[in-house]
# Entry
Amino acid sequence: MEHKIMPPWLVVISHGNFCKELVKSCEMILGKIQDIYCFSLDPGMAPEQLLENVSELVSRAPQNVIIFTDIYAGTPSNVAAILAKQKGYQVICGMNLPMLIEAEMHRHDISFEELIEKIITAGNDSIRNITSITNGREYE
# Structure
């Protein structure tokens, strides 16, 4: 009997409600997403409280967890870095909607390493200067 590896959980952490709204937007496109969890750093919240909140969840997580954060070196990414060091999780900063879409679309069917690469590529490839693109093209 083949042992199937559980798809990684997605943990999304941000300043304020950005994470919750980003997940709502993703679900608007893809439908309900299983095993995705949001944590907000609210005004006045101590970093230790955020760490405690996230730690409580990931204590029951599968082996593979991908943590998305909004800003590199901000409190959410610093909290995620602590968990990455303790548990070996992957942390990706600078999250955007294409990254979450890519994660959900592929986390069930490719290797963890390939998934991380696809997520980063999707995030980078989604940044475009539309004005420059449209000024260089003629439309019928």
